Automatic annotation (TrEMBL):
The keyword Transcription applies. The keyword Transcription applies. PANTHER family: ARAC-FAMILY TRANSCRIPTIONAL REGULATOR, TRANSCRIPTIONAL REGULATOR MTLR. GO terms for molecular function: DNA-binding transcription factor activity; sequence-specific DNA binding. Residues 183-281 form the HTH araC/xylS-type domain. It comes from Flagellimonas allohymeniacidonis. It comes from the Bacteria. This is AraC family transcriptional regulator. SMART domains: HTH_ARAC. It holds the Pfam family HTH_18.
Length: 288
């Protein structure tokens, strides 16, 4: 299993914008929690699924378009995808430089507000999704200069469109030391979500008091350790429901839940349906 990590975007060292396109059929990518200093746009032309961003799990249908701010924890979008054909366009760029342009050029001020809001993660629906998507599909085949100019147009269109927030709380700027601590916490959660993992135990391993750890983690991620652990467990349960024929009770315990009533309650709160209903509704759509 892959561990959560700080994703280093090496391509941005020599270019301001990085873009790629991926398409496959019957893909069941498990994904992993991660964050990175680059801003990220993810466009899925079609399909249904779940997003894991910040402190929330939300659903999308008939395609998706999101803008994620720097250092915002999220999972790969393949992790929650529920349709047969998975296709995504991903654009990563250095938002800090564009934010600085907004301080000097009035034309960029709406974009500056957009990038500030992106610290919570933003989603866009139709018709903005389709209009902006037509621009995004051009990016992977353009040279760097053309790519940058199209990115400016995409950000302009986004700033003029209606959008919603993905994460309930804004992620505040934190030190590199605390970001590294958060990375270690997510790595630990990804590795040991199935056992009784406590915030006291993690705090001790980081050499922090329990109160300091809880404060730093909440400030860095916008959520509590308990909620982050629960969200990863729900995500793992969703994967097992679609990828195995194991009984729901077995899946609950394999995902780290010791109480069936708690598992059913949290699952319904996050996914908006029961585990059995989720399996029945989506298992056929991901068969290879």
């Amino acid at each position: 299993m892959k561990k959560a990590s700080l994703q280093r975007i090496s391509s941005l060292e020599n270019a301001s914008v990085h873009a790629f396109h991926f398409k496959t059929q019957g893909y069941r990518g498990g994904g992993f929690w991660h964050y990175h200093p680059a801003y990220e746009i993810v466009y899925l032309p079609a399909g249904n699924g779940r997003r894991f961003v910040g402190n929330t799990i939300t659903r999308f249908a008939d395609g998706d378009l999101v803008l994620l701010g720097a250092d915002l924890p999220h999972n790969c979008f393949s992790a929650g995808f529920e349709s047969e054909v998975f296709e995504e366009y991903v654009v990563q760029f250095e938002g800090e430089k564009i934010q600085q342009m907004g301080l000097y050029f009035s034309e960029f001020r709406k974009v500056l507000g957009l990038l500030q809001d992106a610290s919570r993660g933003l989603y866009f629906e139709r018709p903005a999704l389709q209009k902006i998507g037509k621009e995004l599909i051009k990016l992977p085949r353009l040279n760097q200069t053309e790519r940058l100019l199209v990115l400016f147009r995409v950000l302009k269109l986004m700033s003029e469109s209606k959008y919603g927030f993905l994460s309930e709380k804004q992620h505040l700027p934190v030190s590199s030391l605390n970001l590294e601590r958060v990375r270690k916490v997510y790595a630990r959660i990804e590795k040991e979500y199935h056992r009784n993992l406590s915030s006291n135990e993690v705090a001790r391993e980081l050499g922090m008091t329990h109160s300091s750890f809880c404060r730093v983690f909440a400030k860095s991620t916008g959520t509590t350790f308990k909620q982050a652990l629960s969200d990863v467990r729900i995500q793992k349960a969703c994967d097992l429901l679609l990828q195995t024929t194991n009984p729901i009770k077995t899946i609950a315990f394999d995902s780290g839940f010791n109480s069936m009533s708690l598992f059913h309650r949290l699952f319904k709160e996050k996914i908006q349906c029961t585990p059995s209903g989720y399996r029945k509704k989506f298992s056929k759509s991901v068969e290879v």
